Amino acid sequence: MTPLPPPAAPLQADVLVCGGGVAGTMAAIAAARHGAAVLLVERYGFLGGNATAGAVAQFNSWQTASGRRVVAGLADEVVARLTQLGAAGAHQTFVMSTGHKMDRVEYAPETLKLVLDDMVIDAGVQPLLHATLLDVSCAGRQVEAVRVLTKGGIVSIRPRLLIDATGDIDALKRAGARFLELEDGEELQPATMMFRFGPIDFGRFDAVPPDEMAALARQGFEQGHLPRAALHCARDPFSPDAWFNISRLAVDATDPMALGRAEIDGRRQAWRAASYLKACVPGCAQGQLRAFGTQVGVRETRRIEGDHVLTAQELLAPAPFEDAIAAGAYPIDIHAARGGGLHYQSLGDDHAYQIPYRSLIPTAFDNALAVGRGVSATHAALAAIRVMTISMAVGQAAGTAAALATRRRAGSNDDGPADVRAVSIAALRRQLENDGACLR
Fold first, then answer.
1. DSSP element (H, E) containing 243
2. If phi over 0 gives left and psi between -120 and 50 gives alpha, with beta otherwise, what is residue 47?
3. How far apart are CA 289 and CA 193, in angstroms?
4. What is the C-alpha to C-alpha distance for residues 188 and 253, in angstroms, rounded to an integer?
5. Is the pLDDT assigned to residue 410 strictly greater than 70?
6. How much is the pTM?
7. Phi then psi for 335, rounded to 5 degrees?
8. Do residues 366 and 417 lie in contact, with contact meaning Cβ atoms separated by under 8 Å?
9. Measuring CA to CA, how many Å separate 271 from each of 165, 194, 227, 250, 274?
10. % the chain with pLDDT above 90
11. Where are the alpha helices (DSSP H) in 137-209?
12. Neighbour-count burial of 152, counting CB atoms closer than 10 A to its CB (0-12 exposed, 13-18 middle, 19+ buried)
């Protein structure tokens, strides 16, 4: 029998980012730009998460209702790079088919893959794509090693600091972290299968009055053609097509069997919805379903138990935080797991809220942070801060904090675990503001 080869030596990194969605990618870029040796692990062969694989196709909520910017920094750079490639629309405000006013930047998901590639490589991040999280080993309150499965076999990584950006917070789950539970009467927000439809005569489509579009959405839902009473879409910058966000899939996306069923049902929902668009919606008569998202877009699964649990009341007050590291103005937007409606709590004209650094810190660990839709927040608070613009801002903050936490003293070769709670909040906030981020 041929003996097995010895295992490869573990990879070393100051910062390991698990998950290459927009939150994780911004975290990796920020950490690397500030001097950390960063390894970015992603299960797909491209970055972006819901922004690319989920094909959400629009970055929502950059500003308050009155127009004050609350998200900038690396998120702005992403849009600037997309714009240079002709792959982003102008920032605009619009009225959704549910009647709610929103602001957004539409973009091409395929081109975003290229933009994120360039930003990661330019920053000096080492990407490890096609890598699936296997397990995590810990010693007390320290994450010591993460193992991932690759085409070349199992790879072990020993980071000084872990940023979990997996969405489902899979890395910290395997590490034994504690999580927040849903309260009585709460259900996980449903997922969505985005689909691309076209060609659309946007002259006719955009000319439909909001009340008529809302009536068409209600009609489609009541007749069983639409899974929810909505006809939201984001226009593709390169064609007369649009990506539609109108399916509804009640699923716990951490359940592998349920997730697979949701993917199948999502494609069926998209097909029925496309038929309704073609038959009943002005401007869509010549259209057809052209593509599905690579995966369902997941709004909510696990939420980490953090040093601070952000609440809806703190968003609505809004509460000031001494350790605020990002801001947002997206409303509380809870999609019902069943039925066609949603709970949408708008904010005041110049209302914005803050996200504290403590909501990124898992209570059970000293050298780990969580970003994206798994941060420490109540179900209702997450319904506001989960959107991709805010996730990019939080990711930038986490990456900057990670770089500060792992920064070696002059003449020091300290390769031990970092302490995320030892980061100077004043220095972190000062650095974020210098890098163009908005903190209030």
1. strand 242-244
2. beta
3. 13
4. 10
5. no
6. 0.95
7. -80, 125
8. yes
9. 31, 11, 11, 18, 5
10. 89
11. 170-175, 202-207
12. exposed
